Amino acid sequence: MSASLLLKALFAAAISGAFAWAVFFQGDPGTENPDEPLSRPRYHPFVPGLLLPLFVLVLIVLGWWQYGWTDALRLTFYACSGILLHIALYDILLVAALPLLRQRISAVACATLWMIPNYLYLTAQSVVRPSEPLLIFDAGRWTEPLFKLWLAGTLCVLGGSILSHLVFRFRILRHARPNGDPTVQALWEAEIRRAKIKKVRFRLVISPDTATPLSIGLFERTIRVVLPDHPYTPEELTLIFRHELVHIGREDTQSKFFLVFCTAFCWFNPLMWIAMHRCAEDLELSCDETVLADADDIVRRRYAHLILDTAGDNRGFTTCLSSAASSLRYRLRAIVSPSRRRSGALIVGLAFFILFMTCGYTALAYGGGEGSQLIFQSRSSDELRLSSVMQTDANYHTTYRCTDKQALFDYLSSLQLKELTGGYDFDQDDNRLSLVYDTADGPLVVVLSDSSVKVVPLYGEDPQANSYYLPGGLDRQRIDALLIPDPALRIRFSGSEQAVERSTSATLSGLWRRKGERTVPLISPELSQEEINIISGYEMREVTLDFSQPPVSPVAVEIQSEPDGTPQTMTLPAQTQQLTLPLSAPSALYTIRATFDCADGSQYDAVFRFRCLDAW
């Protein structure tokens, strides 16, 4: 497991544990003494319902400030589409599993399951984002038309829902008046004390325009608890107020906004509309479960009759005592004949862990262009100079010689690249090839992997690295035909009492190519001490020399003890890639000279150096 994946798993486990703890321990005990000193409110939200919507809103505002309105919406869609599609898939699976879950676990746990995707906004952070997706969907030339169609549908659904809420709110509250009945007010204040609400920002009103009690409003200051202009008994009022205060304490109107928000982004999926209604049902069921905690059969029957006797409209972001006909039978059965179920804490924690760990592995490919523009910024080959080609894998740090720089430039310029939603960097590829081009502006680094190209301009006031998806993959055979690898040396240290080996690459400080009588210097052997790889701080007794290919002649080793020791020399046999020698001094400079065959019939004379400090 990579370090980034382990960090993501630990992060997900911590949040999953918090959810499981909240579901298991933070219930709403009905036996709590209402006259105890105020400590904290009795009712709490399952998950803050506006986390993900606010995250998206911030992205839009920041994008609008920097790029303009249209680009802000487009960039927000590309940044969040993976999260929202993941939520859509999760909700579909939850709809399928809901009948079984409702039989096995508490209504509070079922309602929490709908809300935990709110925390998926955390997966947009680079520290927990996977380095690359597993599934990539390429919309091709339809990307822009599909984006416009999606945006139109999202704005219509979300805007229509907000408008419907405002119209419904106006219709309900236009003739509303403050409560003037002292008996009703006394019952209202008693339930507020029982709920342990320290500061009441919402208001109780009476409206002739509703037939059922309800709460309407997204925020505490704008919430109105609305009673119909209808006489209720004190017992009924107590149940009504308790029901609405549970909704307010749990911020269920914000939870309903989250449902509408997700449905608006996935409006094209009919199952998302079903999921929205199922979630609203579970919010009501969990509220019933809390209101009737420790209630006897008489109270339960009275509560059931109260629901049957009320009928109303719960459009907009409202919580309503009445119930839709489709869920009325199940709701009444749960009220009158409750079955004993598990808390569901473990299921909630496990669901979030899986949801969090799997988020980000699906992406949409869009836009892009040719490598000539995205990699080289329309520069010609005459404006670029290939200064180095390197590859670092699990074993060797290898440099390469390019036999045809123009052919390599032409191939990279012809690549068809795509951008990906989600901002992946593809850094987990162990077979990456790094090319450094010198330009008039400064160095340009191009990192090639099997499925991506990363462009890093090391110039300008604010250089930005850009990663692109390579739909056709990298033609490794074509690349390998243009590159000749230099010899490389991996050094592995071990100690007499040390089980873990330490390894690094020796510095290739000199390289000559010989063919016949001609010798061509490729790398100058003149290096400063700072340019030579060092290993220190570990107990080391011997070193294993692991060459990238077998030497064809005996290997000469020179050991210069530091600070001013007498050089020692030794010769090691050829025709083997691994040679072992003891470390002869605590601190020393090691120089290794070896000869290797080249594929074209020539030979390399190579000089490697490394320093070992405080070895024993």
Architecture overview:
This protein is of the alpha+beta class. Helices cover 39% and strands 25% of the residues. Strand 16 (489-495) and strand 17 form a beta hairpin.
State the helix count. Answer: 15
Biggest sheet overview: 7 strands, antiparallel
Low-pLDDT stretches? 28-34
Distance between the termini: 32 Å
Order of the strands making up the biggest sheet:
14-13-12-11-8-9-15
Tell me, briefly, the overall form: elongated
The computed structural class is: alpha+beta
* Cα gyration radius (Å): 34 Å
DSSP strand count: 26
Beta-strand share of residues: 15-25%
Kindly state the percentage of residues in helix: 25-40%
Mean pLDDT: 84
Show the helix and strand layout.
Elements: H1 3-25, H2 51-67, H3 69-104, H4 107-115, E1 135-138, H5 143-173, E2 177-178, H6 182-195, E3 203-207, E4 214-216, E5 224-228, H7 234-249, H8 252-265, H9 270-291, H10 297-309, E6 318-320, H11 325-336, H12 345-358, E7 362-370, H13 371-374, E8 385-392, E9 397-402, H14 405-414, E10 416-420, E11 433-438, E12 443-448, E13 452-457, E14 466-469, H15 476-482, E15 483-485, E16 489-495, E17 498-505, E18 507-515, E19 518-523, E20 534-536, E21 542-547, E22 555-561, E23 568-572, E24 578-582, E25 588-597, E26 603-613
Helix pairs in contact: 1-12, 2-3, 3-4, 3-9, 4-9, 4-12, 5-8, 6-7, 7-9, 8-9, 9-11, 10-11
Keywords for this entry:
7-stranded antiparallel sheet; alpha+beta; single chain; 616 residues; 7-stranded mixed sheet
Q: Could you provide a short overview of the structure?
A:
With 616 residues, the chain is α+β, with helices and mostly antiparallel strands.
